[in-house]
Amino acid sequence: MAILKDKKVVIIGDRDGIPGPAIADCVATAGGEVVFSSTECFV
Predict the structure, then answer these.
(1) What would the mean pLDDT of 28-34 be, rounded to a whole number?
(2) Is the pLDDT of residue 43 over 90?
(3) What distance in Å separates the CA atoms of residue 35 and residue 23, rounded to the nearest whole number?
(4) Mean per-residue pLDDT for 19-33?
(5) In a domain, 18, yes or no
(6) What is the pLDDT of residue 2?
(7) Phi and psi at residue 28, in whole multiples of 5°?
(8) Number of structural domains in the chain
(9) What is the pTM for the complete model shown?
């Protein structure tokens, strides 16, 4: 069962935490569609 099947997802990752591409891979595995992914620095 895909939790995010047919859902569109916006991802904002953290440079010192979990980067955007890593979250995007998880979302894709869960069946979601990544419409935007970015990794930011929150200082």
Answers:
(1) 93
(2) no
(3) 13
(4) 94
(5) yes
(6) 74
(7) -60, -40
(8) 1
(9) 0.83
Helix or strand holding residue 28 (H, E): helix 20-29
Does residue 1 have a pLDDT over 80?
Answer: no
Q: Tokens standing for 8?
A: 């569109």
Look at residue 12 and tell me if it is in a domain.
Answer: yes
Tokens 């099947």 locate to 5
In this structure, is residue 3 part of a structural domain?
Answer: no
What is the Cα–Cα distance from 10 to 12, expressed in whole angstroms? 7
Domain coverage including residue 24: 8-40
Question: For residue 25, is it within any domain?
Answer: yes
Kindly report each contact of residues 16-21 with a partner whose C-beta sits within 8 Å and lies 24 or more positions away, as own/partner.
Answer: 16/41, 16/42
Tokens found for residue 28: 């894709």
